[in-house]
Amino acid sequence: QGDSDEGIDYMFKVVMVGDSGVGKSQLLNRFVRNEFQMKSKATIGVEFLTKTVVMDHKVVKAQIWDTAGQERYQAITTAYYRGATGALLAYDITNRQSFDHVEKWLDELRVHADNIIVMLVGNKSDLSSGRAVPMEEAKDFAKQKGLFFVETSALDSNNVESAFLGLLSQIYATVG
Ligand code: GDP
Ligand code: MG
């Protein structure tokens, strides 16, 4: 496949957002490389990773942007969001504060990328004994805000494909 864009029908830019430590980089690592690291580095070393998928007989290339930890300093630049048609907004189901901050991330998305399609992701579902955010509460919140929602685990792979592919198919349904 290489880096060629030959045969690509659609290219969608997706951004990863959410508090530091919720698992954004490992969700991306799991989806694109089927890998996971317990000791996640602050950055994956590149601005984005790409994954090509086929949907509805069309070849869709997703360019998925990850932060290099700038979210810790509220220093994500406008360039990060430019041209994005979708966002994966992650929180950690064991970290109440990361869920409480979802609204702030939605505001940030609205400012930089109006009409962006958002998949809300409650990550670390493998740590259910430490759960601090009830699934029903997040589901209701997502419904109220018009977001798609799923709980995932980058560690055991639960729903990671569903989260990304669900987002991509919603983007496809809108702009494809
Ligand atoms: P980011 O700051 O949002 O990019 O978060 P990272 O992807 O760097 O992950 C932060 C920490 O949480 C790392 O130690 C990861 O190994 C860990 N982590 C990420 N996803 C999961 C998960 O689904 N389950 C568990 N148990 N740990 C996770
Ligand atoms: Mg990260």
Automatic annotation (TrEMBL):
A cellular component term, taken from the record's GO annotations:
endomembrane system
Q: How does it sit in the membrane?
A: Lipid-anchor
Lineage, top-rank taxon, reads Eukaryota
Which keywords are on file for this protein? GTP-binding, Lipoprotein, Membrane, Nucleotide-binding, Prenylation
What subcellular locations does the record give?
Answer: Endomembrane system
Gene Ontology molecular function terms on file:
GTP binding; GTPase activity
Where does it primarily localize? membrane
**Similarity field:** Belongs to the small GTPase superfamily. Rab family.
Question: Which protein, by its recorded name, is this?
Answer: Uncharacterized protein
Q: State the organism named in the record.
A: Lotus japonicus
Q: Which residues of the full protein are shown?
A: 5 to 180 of 227
